[in-house]
Amino acid sequence: MTEQPAASTSLSKADIPGPATSPAAPAAAPADARADARAALTALRTEIGKAVVGQDAAVTGLVVALLCGGHVLLEGVPGVAKTLLVRALSTALSLETKRIQFTPDLMPGDVTGSLVYDARTAEFSFQPGPVFTNLLLADEINRTPPKTQASLLEAMEERQVTVDGEPRALPEPFLVAATQNPVEYEGTYPLPEAQLDRFLLKLILPLPTRDQEFQVLSRHANGFDPRDLAAAGVRPVAGPADLAAARAEIAKLTIAPEVLAYIVDLCRATRQSPSLSVGVSPRGATALLGASRAWAWLAGRDYVTPDDVKALALPALRHRVQLRAEAEMEGVTADSVIQAVLAQTPAPR
Q: Among residues 58, 69, 90, 308, which one has the fewest Cβ atoms lying within 10 Å of its Cβ?
């Protein structure tokens, strides 16, 4: 999500609000539990900030994805802390994390696991792959062939992998954070639409501002080692129990029919845009709804507003549309089309 001027409808500069209970929430223990879960997840921002400078929007998007049980595609040029961001998140969340470096020779079994023959028992046993974890960092996912990319489809959608005809459940929670480089095309395999649609959000990590880059260099000059997050002071502040409590509360959020209709109108408008050959599918509308609910909960509300929908529209929809060739040649981008749709679609009051 590219930085934009501060506004209530922009996710890029909006901070995760501090802990607050809903106005309608009772003062009993359940309200305390809600506040505790929100405080723990809000604290993630501070912890990740000890290692990563200036990527507040991406941090917010990752927290939203965790609350929704969705996956995230991180896009940015080399050196903007994509991998470090995910590593810092996993440290602050106290979740099991594994990393796969996607390369042209990576095979599906290297991701999901495979049957291995045991000479001692003369039987085949299943050896789990790195996908059996809570937070999977799929580094440079577009550098591996489509066959291996497809091995993640079942895991991302069904939360299981099937080997030799037997489905095997993945741990809960399970999130794929995949990174890709938008400027290198040599030796890459663009993700197909079906796989892009499996990602809840696509987050753009921009280059830092001058002040932010100065902070990065100052930290390194003072001995910061990105390979040693413990030395940087990053510590676990939340865990699976906090995520489970938060998801239970988000499921109770109220969303008015008018806001639901607004989401529908936005997604249908993309299908009618002359700049797009493919608009947002119903799955994209569902993703926008879920992300908006999580954003509203982080803001301390028990209802969703049109501004919540606007704040998540770009990251939730930008990877679900396909530009026409002539529009792309004219410099039109997916973000500009979605922004135009937001400007032209009346929001409920």
A: 69
> Rounded CA gap, 153 and 195, in Å?
6
CB atoms within 10 A of CB 21: 16
Q: What is the pLDDT of residues 164-201, one digit of tens each?
A: 888 999 998 899 999 988 766 677 888 888 888 899 99
**Owner of token pair 């988000």:** 250
Distance from C-alpha of 78 to C-alpha of 16, rounded to nearest angstrom = 26
34-67 residue pLDDT tens: 668 888 888 888 888 888 888 888 888 999 999 9
Domain layout of the chain by residue ranges: 51-222
Class for the domain spanning 51-222: alpha beta
Structure tokens belonging to residue 145: 């062939």
> 3-class secondary structure for the chain?
CCCCCCCCCCCCCCCCCCCCCCCCCCCCHHHHHHHHHHHHHHHHHHHHHCCCCCCHHHHHHHHHHHHHCCCEEEECCCCCCHHHHHHHHHHHHCCCEEEEECCCCCCHHHHHEEEEEECCCCEEEEEECCCCCCEEEEECHHHCCHHHHHHHHHHHHHCEEEECCEEEECCCCCEEEEEECCCCCCCCCCCCHHHHCCCCEEEECCCCCHHHHHHHHHHHHCCCCCCCCCCCCCCCCCCHHHHHHHHHHHCCCECCHHHHHHHHHHHHHHHCCCCEEECCCHHHHHHHHHHHHHHHHHCCCCECCHHHHHHHHHHHHCCCCEECHHHHHCCCCHHHHHHHHHHHCCCCC
Which residues lie below 8 Å from residue 263, measured CB to CB, with a gap of 6+?
A: 285, 288, 289, 292, 309
Residue 268 · residue 78 · CB < 8 Å: no
Neighbouring residues of 121: CB distance < 8 A, sequence distance ≥ 6: none
Q: Which residues pair with 101 in a beta bridge?
A: 139
Structure pTM?
0.84
Conformation bin of residue 300: beta by default, left when phi > 0, alpha when psi is -120 to 50: left
Is residue 177 within 8 Å of 63, Cβ to Cβ? no
Determine the straight-line distance between the first and last CA of the chain, rounded to whole angstroms.
26
